[in-house]
Amino acid sequence: MGCGHKCARISLAIFTVFGTLLSLVAAFSCDFVIKIEYTYWYGHTWNGLGFLGRSKHGFEGSSDFCVGWSSEEKEYLLDGYWNAGFAFALLAFSLGMLTMIGSFLFCCLGNVTNKIYCSLVIIYVFTAMFQGLTFVSFASDVYDTLESWEGLNYHVGVGAGCAILATIVWLLCAILAGRSKIQNEIEEQAEEQVQHYNNEPIIAKAVFASEEPIVNETVTVREDGTRVIERLTMFPDGSQETTTIEEKPVENSAESPV
């Protein structure tokens, strides 16, 4: 395995780790979106919404905490779009974990078939697609309901930002996996050519080591009766010699009567 192929595998493993960590934050952070507000009593504070619950930052001094959704909030606030976004986030994180484990295994393996690389490309593309579909949660009525209650708009938070970055990283992983596949094919072709080049003289020597020169003759007769003999001589060292001989017919002279 060449340096280019090995570097591509290592880069793929590193990008997969970053993508998995970003997907983790996007799925389980309580700050998928945030709402910044300023109060004179507590200073600068903000609230966050995540798939697992709501967060509060800056309240009671500098305390930060996350509170899970209550049963009433799950029943009246969380709709199908919100749950679908959470499901896609979990799928992206799960596939990211599998690809991260697989990418480290590939770094330890010697030869990997092109079918495995094609499978990796497909998995990375699906992971990026699932990560991008996380944003269907923006169509949820949760934001409109809370904004009408609290009077402030929610913006992209840490979780949504990580989801955007994770989508980009998974697409880069798909490109790197495709690049690794191409590099693998190039190295396999180069190894086959080198092996063929190294084995060809050895085979020739084994065949001709204990044999006399081999002579093959081909005889062709033309319309005028000329015989063309082509002689191909193969010597023990692998060299060849071709000789062509033409034999014209002998003309018989007829005697004139006296």
From TrEMBL:
Q: Keywords for this entry?
A: Membrane, Transmembrane, Transmembrane helix
Organism (species): Ditylum brightwellii
UniProt keyword Membrane, yes or no: yes
What ranges does the record give for the region Disordered, renumbered to this chain? 238-258
Top-level taxon: Eukaryota
Bilayer-crossing residues are 12-34, 86-109, 116-140, 152-177
Transmembrane in keyword set: yes
In the record, what lineage is assigned to the organism producing the protein? Eukaryota, Sar, Stramenopiles, Ochrophyta, Bacillariophyta
Q: What is this protein called?
A: MARVEL domain-containing protein
